[in-house]
């Protein structure tokens, strides 16, 4: 993992440095550094796959996306990109897309009645 990568989601400041610091602390359960411990880290940074570029950027609503886009585990339904949920969907820092959908429906109805 390269240093200095931060989650690209608006309002989320999870980054690789925090994970590194976390791994240097001691695990309460196992009495070893978390680096040497079987416990999982609270989140990981996932780099944007080339093939999902459009979906991810649409989900993140980034006006000026960085060269390398990372999204942390918190924004994935399965805590990481999977076949079922490959795109970031949770806690994306803006209102739920449902509101937008409703507005579109209203507009369509208005067109039908006029
Ligand atoms: Zn542990
Ligand atoms: Zn994040």
Q: Which helices and strands appear, and what pairs or packs with what?
A:
Layout: H1 16-24, E1 45-47, H2 53-60, E2 70-72, H3 97-113
Antiparallel strand pairs: 1-2
This protein binds zinc ion (ZN) (2 copies).
Describe the structure concisely for a colleague:
By secondary structure, the chain is mainly alpha-helical.
Features:
mainly alpha, two-stranded antiparallel sheet, 114 residues, 30% helix, single chain, binds zinc ion
Describe the 3D structure.
One of its GO terms (molecular function) is zinc ion binding. By secondary structure, this protein is mostly helical. It has one domain. The chain contains 3 helices and 2 strands; from the N terminus they run αβαβα. The protein has helices at residues 16-24, 53-60, 97-113, and strands at 45-47, 70-72. A two-stranded antiparallel ribbon has the order 1-2. 15% of the residues are buried. The mean pLDDT is 86. One zinc ion binds at residues 27, 29-30, 37, 39. One zinc ion binds next to loops.
């Amino acid at each position: 993992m390269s240093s200095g990568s931060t989650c690209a989601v608006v309002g989320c400041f999870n980054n690789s440095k925090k994970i590194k610091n976390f791994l240097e602390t001691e695990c309460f359960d196992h009495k070893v550094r978390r680096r040497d411990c079987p416990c999982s880290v609270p989140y990981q940074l996932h780099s944007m796959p080339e093939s999902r570029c459009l979906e991810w950027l649409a989900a993140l609503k980034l006006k000026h996306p960085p060269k390398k886009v990372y999204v942390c585990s918190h924004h994935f339904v399965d805590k990481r990109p999977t076949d079922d949920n490959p795109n970031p969907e949770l806690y994306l820092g803006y209102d739920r897309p449902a509101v937008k959908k409703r507005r579109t429906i209203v507009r369509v109805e208005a067109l039908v009645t006029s």
